[in-house]
Design goal:
The relative contact order is 0.08. This protein folds into two domains: 99 residues, no CATH class; 164 residues, no CATH class. It is built from ten helices and no strands. It is mainly α. Helix 7 packs antiparallel against helix 8. Bound molecules: zinc ion. The site of zinc ion has 8 residues, from loops.
């Protein structure tokens, strides 16, 4: 890696951390979205504004060992996790698409998905508006990608996304109906439909499988450590989102490995 590439990479990381920090504010004040733009970043406990040198809160969090500079209270680990995740996702996008229009679409879609995951984790609810916004950008991404590869009028390419969307919607719609919304809610159905649109067929199958795998593993760990029982509902959104990212970046590899193992 030459010095120029290293600088770009550092900038991508810093940009990711800053976007992550902004998303934390969006998650915190989602019901009062106007205030997100009007007010500056501040400590969630003592409300004191962050000085300029805390503008990348991720580093401050590490330096101050998870406490606020002023009130010394512990700040939720959600903040640095969201920042680090967005930075990581931006690196992956940059690695695959460079600095392009595609990357811009993907950065926006990823940011919306991370907000969905954390919001669902905190409130067991998936705001529709986030899914619809992400769907618009996903359509933009697909259209632009197909136009670039001159397959915009290729029916098969569109069919892949249509099948993906139908599988996500059909499978989760079925689960919601047979469980009377006990296992999942309609928010999960919308999210799964969005996943299908983003990933297309057959990647959506990989993502659905991964989501259930991750969700079950997590439940087992919680039950083993007695933090939750079978009766506690765990929001499924975070697992759907995690699975979407894994399938998006490594889905084709996973499919190949799976079939190689089976010797097909
Ligand atoms: Zn504070």
């Amino acid at each position: 890696m030459d010095i120029f590439q290293a600088i770009i990479l550092i900038l991508v990381v810093l940009f990711g951390l800053s976007v992550g920090s902004f998303l934390n504010v969006v998650i915190l004040r989602f019901d009062d979205i106007e205030s997100v733009i009007k007010t500056r970043s501040h400590c969630p406990k003592c409300k004191k504004n962050l000085p300029w040198y805390d503008l990348v809160p991720f580093f401050s969090y590490i330096i101050l060992a998870g406490r606020c500079r002023h009130c010394k209270k512990y700040i939720s680990v959600q903040y640095p996790i969201v920042e680090a995740l967005i930075a990581l996702i931006f690196i992956l996008i940059y690695g695959q698409y460079g600095i392009t229009i595609n990357s811009l679409f993907l950065a926006i879609i990823s940011s919306l998905l991370i907000v969905v995951a954390v919001y669902d984790w905190l409130h067991s609810e998936i705001p529709d508006i986030l899914i619809y916004s992400a769907a618009v950008f996903a359509l933009g991404f697909i259209t632009y990608s197909l136009w670039q590869t001159q397959t915009l009028l290729n029916i098969d390419a569109w069919l892949s996304y249509t099948y993906g969307l139908m599988i996500g919607f059909g499978f989760f719609g079925f689960l919601v109906i047979v469980s009377h919304q006990k296992w999942m809610g309609w928010g999960d159905v919308l999210l799964a439909t969005l996943m299908g649109l983003i990933l297309g067929y057959p990647n959506v199958i990989v993502a659905l499988f991964l989501a259930f795998l991750l969700g079950s593993l997590f439940s087992l760990v919680l039950m083993a450590t007695k933090k939750k029982t079978m009766k506690d509902a765990i929001p499924f959104g975070p697992f759907l989102v995690a699975a979407t990212f894994i399938a998006f970046f490594w889905g084709t590899n996973l499919i190949n490995i799976y079939f190689l193992r089976l010797g097909l």
